[in-house]
Amino acid sequence: MQTTAVNGANYLTYQGKYKGLLGWILSTDHKRIGLLYLYSIATMFTTGVLLGLAMKFELLAPGKTIMEAQTYNSVFTVHGVIMIFMVVVPGLPAVFGNLMLPIMIGARDVAFPKLNLLSWWLYVAGVFLVLAALLFGKGSPDTGWTFYAPYSFKTGTNMLPAIFGAFVLGFSSILTGLNFLVTIHRLRCKGMKWMKLPLFVWTLYGTAWIQLLATPVVGITLVLVALERVFGVGIFDPALGGDPILYQHLFWIYSHPAVYIMILPAMGAISEIIPTFAQKHIFGYKALIASTMAIAFVGYLVWGHHMFTAGMSGTAQYYFSLLTFIVAIPSAIKVFNWISTLYKGSINVQTPFYWAVSFIFVFMIGGLSGLVLGALATDVHVHDTAFVVAHFHYIVFGGTGFAFFAAIHYWFPKIFGRMYDKAWANTGWLVFFVGFLALYTPMFYLGMMGMPRRYYDYLEEFHGGNILSTFGSWVLVTGFIIIVVNLVRSARKGAPAEANPWHGRTLEWTVPSPPPVLNFDEEPVLGEKDGPYNYE
Amino acid sequence: MNSEVTQASNFVQGVDTAFIIILAICFIFLIGLTAVMLYFIYKYNKKKNPKPTQIEGSTKLEIIWTIIPFLLTMLMFYYGWAGWKPMHKPPKDAMEVTVYGRMWNFSFEYDNGRRSDTLFLPKDKPVKLNLVAMDVLHSLYIPAFRVKQDMVPGKKDNFMWFEPQKEGTYELFCAEYCGLQHSYMYTYVEVMKDSAFQAWIADTTSVAASVAAVESPAATGKRIMQNIGCFACHTIDGTRLVGPSFKGIWGETQTVVTGRDKREVTVDEEYIKRSIFDPNADIADGYQKGLMLTYEGQLSDDDVNNIIEYLKTLK
Question: Which coarse location class applies to the principal site listed for this UniProt protein (chain A) (predicted)?
Fold first, then answer.
């Protein structure tokens, strides 16, 4: 295994002030923190998958299959809370941003390493707070992850701690965003001009702005909920003279930009993987940057499309629908550029490439089905039905999830210094992909037929689609198990990896695998002709 | 479309036109782009094309594939808007029906006081539904009519309208999650000939009253309480939910908070009526204020008397 000058050790084996576990959970090394996030998020993701599996099993047949309605309602609530706040929102930035961002810009670490460690600790604290709010008190909440008023105020009293936990998680997100912003502005190596930044870094940059500017709304909501719950000021609860629609506005003013926090870094990872495996310059570098920033900006202004049937004014609905269609355009531009990058490339079809191509496919379905939801007339019919569930799983699971798997298979040799078994990795991908399509595609049909979402039980006419969907969930989980077993085994026993197994051009491929503690022996300098996608 | 109407409501055509246009564009893009992508992967595979040709981009292409999607999205926006716009302008002569949504059922009240738990409607007459949510958010959704509107507690001017155009029975769901029995909160729309509807509506006996003839007052009371959803928050077996249990409550002395003062009251007819019609006046000690809304206008004196008879049986 390659080693470097610093203590003769890489970041995995390096021993600092503390030994063992303490050396990890107190480490300020960006790569160790990235791995801490990877393990915490993987744990939460697995929990969320098991809950999802239980839900799909319950829906295998009408009537009670394995659980009572109350249990089902809690299961989909906890599934949503875990998957959104603890998995996909931190997701790629916290894991691969931490692991790769400083190396990609030629820096030794992020700008504020201690603050970075604090972010992870806040994440863990937030996870425990939310889980405590879910598990203790008067039973698990059954409100859905949206906590819509006034139902969420009527059932149990754990609303306040749950939002407080979400706020702590949000604070972790804000600090990570701030850290990345300063890092990208201040720590680029010599010659790393803005127009030479890898696109993954650009998407992290756009994401960081959203994290910084949108997340505080959670704090505002928390204060208002506290005012109402503790002092009885009527803000959201109509019984006290409040307005439940105001709650929906505040919720989505954060939670819609959060969707772009989830998807932008995923798009960035794909923009790294496609050129590497095509061995070709990315098509439309500047267009991809412009579309990233356009999504980050317009993404703030479309939250109302979650509320077309809620009772907003007609004018508001008109504008939100129009802006929603506008925000679709930069996403389309990205897809066109990715596909064009393949043109006249020399394509090396490997596991990360399979994930990237299937990402483009499921992301197109997710995005195009979003047009149905963005148009007013069609949204009225399919809003709050299984169609919406299919749509956002195609985006956040098909989009962000597939990109996450693409990224882990892409950077795995760099992170662990070992290569996974490629045949098993490809098998895992295929099974997972087939399972995914079988799981979510029938939900589009069910929604068009009129099956509302969050239904514990359903009428016989919806049975067929649900059987196929449940069957798909079993296939998907089989694929997931294959992928995880292969990766876990390979992290310890895989064949040692080269520094640059995929022939990438970004800076992380110039350092040994795994990287040394301080990343670079000497600060790298980018020449006039160097660039992230210059394969000449 | 020929002149014979085959659609369930007046909105079906506008909504379905938008569906067809948007889905057609979606499928053309999805199939086209996927085919091109797979073709590139095949054609420019490493084995077939060992040396890549470096191309950094094309401003012309970027402009083209910005403008074309822009025009297409504006087209889709237009059809979405066109199908939706009439949904917010009910005709002045529309028949009005008040819909009460509560955990977990719908009830419908007609102008002449006729009540029903199924929505009976005459064919070819515009109907305006005035939506009243009694507790939490609900959403009235009739898939066959392509209509949906959230029912927001406390919201004024909460309505939807449509014109049924085909006789038949249609499903009506609650689409906004509302708790334990959300998936059982559905009923049916029965669209009938105008003459049949007029005969039906002329019979103004309320649901509860028509049952009372064959049942004891206590049984009627229980049925009313089930219908209006009392047991979502109050049990009859002593278990504590967000509201106090009804077990053994009749004649008991209860500590309540009135304003800021605690006082003792006996649970009698007067107290029960006040708890139903002005639920936040006296709050049972240890429970939260503001969780229950008044049932004013929802229950008749007879209904309340029946409820009291039922509560007396819960020893």
Answer: membrane
